[in-house]
Amino acid sequence: MWRASVLTILPDVFPGPLGASLAGKALTSGAWALDVVDIRDFATDRHRSVDDTPAGGGPGMVMRPDVLGRAIDAAATDKRPRLLLSPRGAPLTQERVETLAHGPGLVLVCGRFEGIDERVIAARGLEEVSIGDYVLSGGEIAAMALIDACVRLLPGVMGAPASSAEESFAEGLLEYPHYTRPQLWEGRPIPEVLLSGDHAKIAAWRRSEAERLTRERRPDLWASRPRGA
Ligand code: JAH
After folding, report:
1. Side-chain half-sphere of 40: how many Cα atoms within 13 Å?
2. Share above pLDDT 90 across residues of the chain, in percent, rounded to a whole number
3. pLDDT greater than 90 at residue 111
4. C-alpha 2 – ligand 1 centre gap (Å)
5. Is the separation of the CB atoms in 32 and 151 below 8 Å?
6. What is the distance in A from the centroid of ligand 1 to the CA of 136?
7. Residue 209's pLDDT is what?
8. Is the pLDDT of residue 159 over 80?
């Protein structure tokens, strides 16, 4: 079974939103598994310390390699990828999410404080992954985002086939605009083409809107969108 093991000093925040909706039902019904490991359980001193002052001085605290190393060794004896959520990491992509969802699962290390001792990253083969260029207070929310993105792709979790958003993304495009009833809302009509019943015309309109939005909002995606072989 696909399994996420999350190492954190805030074990109480899990499963959080992962326990709701379709991902939550799939968790309850055993379609995937979540292990939450409290890093503090691997501390050995009276105060159960997980951090210490930075070598060389400077602000904040650094997560200790000895405590975190023991937590990783206890959580992960298998071949799952070991990822560290970090703004230093390679940006996460839908393509990477698909690869991770097809594998055995994930071991996710959530840092807190200014960072974690660089030696534990090297010694335990942690790969740094970023979900965006901004700084959170810790890796937990990023870990939830990554797990959510993977779990919704597992067979039987969402029930439905690939969403239009996914198909759109696979083509390197943003999603076209959606509408539902009422036909007129606050003076705003649904675009006439969507009421025409002409499915070829509707598909062409959606494609052109997806392309326009991608060009306008994400010139980076537009420039590197996949082109047919
Ligand atoms: C911040 C540990 N890519 C989003 C992201 C991921 C992790 C963190 N920040 C942003 C983070 C502080 C401590 C992790």
Report:
1. 9
2. 92
3. yes
4. 24
5. yes
6. 5
7. 98
8. no
Ligand 1 near 112 CB (within 6 A): yes
Distance 113 CA to ligand 1 centre (A): 10
Q: What was the pLDDT predicted at 160?
A: 60
Report the sign of the C-alpha dihedral through residues 123, 81, 84, 11, in that order: negative
Is residue 161 pLDDT above 70, yes or no? no
Is the Cβ atom of 135 under 6 angstroms away from ligand 1? Answer: yes
Please, is 38 exposed, middle or buried when counting C-beta atoms within 10 Å of its C-beta (0-12, 13-18, 19+)?
middle
Q: Closest ligand 1 atom to the C-alpha of 114?
A: 13
Name the residue among 157, 131, 148 with its Cα closest to residue 16: 148
How far apart are the CA of 155 and the centre of ligand 1, in A?
29
Distance CA 83, CA 110 (A): 9
**Worst-scoring range by mean pLDDT, 45-59, 74-88, 121-135, 157-171?**
157-171
- Ligand 1 atom 6, closest CA: 86
- With a 6 Å cutoff on the Cβ, whether 131 touches ligand 1 is yes
pTM here is 0.96
